[in-house]
Amino acid sequence: MLSRLTRPQALAVLSAPVVALLATAVAAPLPFSVAQPGLTANVLGENKGTQVITITGAPVRETSGQLRMTTIEATSPDTRVGLPDVIDSWFSTEQAVMPRDSVYPSGDSVKEIEQYNRKQMKESQDEATRAALDYLNREDENIGVTLELADVGGPSAGLLFSLGIIDKLDGDGSGGDLTGGRVIAGTGTIDANGAVGAVGGVPLKTQAAKRDGATVFLVPKDECSDARAELPDGLRLVPVTTLKSAVDALVALEKGTGEVPGC
């Protein structure tokens, strides 16, 4: 025998699966990481008591100002990120929701990811050294460069490493500092030929830069629009595509001559 449900009964029966589905969605882990502004480090100085750039085999200049590489801090790859976390971060200016695969290699264990990030950092340091020495036409000299940056992985500090090496060896090329005494921050990968690449997480990095005293931020040109989206007041964006364009912009900014590009 079949009986007909009243309207309230029917709504109750139909709503039960919807409620269950919503509850499941709220509780289910999502393929995202929650990120926020991370540490910055002056590559011309020390980080956690260790000199970031050490050069042997050539005279090293005394520098002024700072060249600060920037980072983001993201939830670990095994952290459970649910819908409430995503919603909270969506409305926060100090956090961002990013696809986990854009932050960490997909399908790897935490240990493997840490190894991968260390490998990327080492490769980035090697490329940054080659790019800087090639820019200075000193790649054939017996110059040794050691780069140390604890607890940071990935390739996004490449541009700042190269600029730091150039500033320590040659400055602006005429006795001055690349920084002009300013706190310069930035981000960007670099290859041995000096090409600067995009990195991601730029809006969070500009916040970290401003927090730590920067007034100028070097950004890969392709990420200008991202950098402008939530740019802190008082922070000047300078787009770059190559190591040479970054040096030229800093020299123009320091000397007050020539055009300094903007986003």
From TrEMBL:
<dbReference type="InterPro" id="IPR008269">
    <property type="entry name" value="Lon_proteolytic"/>
</dbReference>
<dbReference type="Pfam" id="PF05362">
    <property type="entry name" value="Lon_C"/>
</dbReference>
<dbReference type="GO" id="GO:0004176">
    <property type="term" value="F:ATP-dependent peptidase activity"/>
</dbReference>
<dbReference type="GO" id="GO:0004252">
    <property type="term" value="F:serine-type endopeptidase activity"/>
</dbReference>
<feature type="domain" description="Lon proteolytic">
    <location>
        <begin position="153"/>
        <end position="243"/>
    </location>
</feature>
<dbReference type="InterPro" id="IPR020568">
    <property type="entry name" value="Ribosomal_Su5_D2-typ_SF"/>
</dbReference>
<feature type="signal peptide">
    <location>
        <begin position="1"/>
        <end position="27"/>
    </location>
</feature>
<keyword id="KW-0732">Signal</keyword>
<dbReference type="GO" id="GO:0006508">
    <property type="term" value="P:proteolysis"/>
</dbReference>
<protein>
    <recommendedName>
        <fullName>Lon proteolytic domain-containing protein</fullName>
    </recommendedName>
</protein>
<dbReference type="InterPro" id="IPR014721">
    <property type="entry name" value="Ribsml_uS5_D2-typ_fold_subgr"/>
</dbReference>
